[in-house]
Amino acid sequence: MPETGPSAPEQPNEPNAPENGTLIDAGAELVQTVVTYVRQETGDIVHEKVVLPTQKAGGTVALAIGVALVLFAGLMFVSAGALILLASWIGWPAALFAVGGALIIGAAAIALVRTRSMQK
Question: What residue ranges do the domains of the chain occupy?
Fold first, then answer.
């Protein structure tokens, strides 16, 4: 007579197989994890070493352009005032020559100081 109770205990087909899938699935998951990690780390490095310094440089350039525009406007007002004052004292041709010469000499002096400081 055959037994009506439970038969022999069932054993898994492959005792060393991963529970979540095959070995190929585990390898693919490992590769995906490594790729995700590398992308995250390189993203952090790029953000720290490239993006932040570029943002700081952009802010510095924007500030420098703003300062240059304000200085240019101020220089034009001072030049116009000096021109009108000198024109009343020495005449228009001499006043134009004096103010233009002062601006050229000032620009040359700034360029000279800047090139000397860059050479050091």
Answer: 23-119
